[in-house]
Write a structure and sequence with these properties.
The chain has 133 residues and is mainly β. It has one helix and nine strands, in the order ββββαβββββ. Strands 1-3-4-6-5 form a five-stranded mixed beta barrel. The chain has a three-stranded antiparallel beta sheet with strand order 7-8-9, with no helix packed on it. The longest helix has 9 residues, at 50-58. The radius of gyration is 20 Å and the shape is elongated. The protein starts with a strand and ends in a 7-residue tail after the last strand.
Length: 133
């Protein structure tokens, strides 16, 4: 197995998932070596550092710009992708707030109603966040 130390900046592509063991996580970064979308590369990353895994699973969101360092390992099998085992992570910039799409929040007195075109139900909450029905 060939390994190399690597540091890259990239955007978190999807929501990180827990790894196979406690205190681990898997995630993907989109790295753009140029300003052209055609050159974008998706890196498969893992971490077994509990602090980094916790931050990935609870605080960091897709679209955040991350600076990661670790060991890139290329398997002997060409069918398996290279994986970056991350041992240092820094959030360079958080993703902008996501706009509500196809969803409308409306307030009627002390109640908040959520209209979502993807569902047939209309959840109702109090202004303090308690579920009404």
């Amino acid at each position: 197995m060939d390994t190399k130390h690597l540091t890259i900046d990239g955007f978190l592509d999807t929501v990180p998932t827990p790894g196979d063991a406690p205190g681990t996580a898997r995630f993907q970064l989109i790295v753009s070596p140029t300003d052209d979308v055609v050159d974008d590369v998706i890196w498969s990353c893992t971490t077994n550092t509990p602090g980094i895994a916790h931050a990935l699973l609870t605080e960091i969101q897709p679209g955040d710009l991350l600076h990661v360092s670790g060991v890139l390992a290329q398997s002997d099998s060409p069918a398996e992708p290279a994986r970056l085992a991350v041992n240092a992570l820094e959030v360079l910039a958080t993703a902008p707030a996501r706009a509500l799409q196809e969803m409308v929040l409306d307030r009627y007195g002390d109640c908040v109603v959520v209209f979502d075109t993807d569902t047939d139900t209309v959840p109702v909450f109090t202004a303090l966040g308690q579920w009404v029905g």
